[in-house]
Amino acid sequence: MRELIEGRRIAGIVSCLLAGACLAAVAAAARGAPPAPRPAETEVRYPRDPEKLYSYRREHDPNGIGKFYMGREIAHVMGFAGAAWLDRPERETEERLSLLIESLQLQRGMVVADIGAGSGRITLLLAEAVGPEGRVYAVDIQQKMLDLIAAKLKRRKLGNVTLVRGTAKSPRLPQAAVDLVLLVDVYHEFAYPYEMLYEISRALKPGGRVVFVEYRMEDPRVPIKRVHKMSEAQVRREASWPEFGLRHERTIGVLPRQHIIVFRKVSGVLRSTTPGGPAD
Ligand SMILES: C[S@@+](CC[C@H](N)C(=O)[O-])C[C@H]1O[C@@H](n2cnc3c(N)ncnc32)[C@H](O)[C@@H]1O
């Protein structure tokens, strides 16, 4: 019986290799390593044409890119020069990062993704929270940010973080592999928000969460430029395309400046065009 099972296992691996589709996954499993990021060039077929969801205006906010999605302008990406701002000591008082991490109710051993990781300030907190038995994918589109994180990881001797150079359309995460995706102060910068959220949904395990942390547009006292803020209603609208399979679970209001908006993946990501659009 054991030989039969073993034989089937080997046959499965051989056919997998012949198909040429899971070489990296087999190698990773053999090493006990986390699944590798997907190649950047992987072609994705979206359930609807994302370009039809975007519009472009010549006159626009100077802090935005002139591209609009569902009624709001997309912001410029914060460049590497902003890394020191992300690491400012007073950020803990202003944004209560430790309270944010506590609110996520992480457990040791979880797999989390910090998309738009920037200088890695939050990546390090996540790496400590999930422990050596867990894993953090730190994703950014700027190599200089990833280099900064690599240096911090070396200094802190943290071995549970995988650095991923994402693209503007994809975090290149393995599919159905992540318990929680964290988006701190980045979603409003995504140049392709529909494509990114579609890919994020595909990376979540069934029942996994995606958490948006955005400066509150509703509060004029929050000292952040307009296109870098988002209202709760706007985030909920943008996450509600049925093909994402996400359901709003709760919005946590404990932070001084930001919403913590939590969605759970409740159904599989749809591949074909679905009738109906986002909720009002
Ligand atoms: C304002 S910073 C926030 C950094 C970090 N989340 C924090 O709060 O400390 C935004 C970061 O998101 C990155 N970013 C922008 N668009 C991205 C995308 N499509 N995929 C991954 N990272 C992205 C930028 O390069 C930048 O490092």
Q: Which structural class best describes the helix and strand composition?
A: alpha/beta
Give the overall shape: globular
Radius of gyration: 20 Å
**Overall tally of domains:** 2
CATH-defined architecture of the largest domain: 3-Layer(aba) Sandwich
CATH topology of the largest domain: Rossmann fold
In helices, the fraction of residues equals 25-40%
Hetero ligands = S-adenosylmethionine
What's the β-strand tally? 11
Overview of this structure, please?
The protein has 280 residues and is of the alpha/beta class. The longest helix has 18 residues, at 2-19. The protein has helices at 2-19, 23-31, 83-86, 91-95, 97-103, 121-130, 143-156, 193-203, 232-238, and strands spanning 54-56, 64-69, 72-75, 111-115, 135-140, 161-165, 178-184, 204-216, 229-230, 246-252, 258-265. It is built from nine helices and eleven strands. A hairpin with a 2-residue loop joins strand 2 and strand 3. The chain folds into two domains: 1-33, no CATH class; 38-265, Rossmann fold (3-Layer(aba) Sandwich), CATH 3.40.50.150. The chain is globular. Strands 4, 5, 6, 7, 8, 9, 10 and 11 form an eight-stranded mixed β-sheet that branches. A three-stranded antiparallel β-sheet has the order 1-2-3, with no helix packed on it. Residues 1-31 and 272-277 have low confidence and may be disordered. It starts with a helix and ends in a 15-residue tail after the last strand. Helices cover 30% and strands 24% of the residues. Bound molecules: S-adenosylmethionine (SAM).
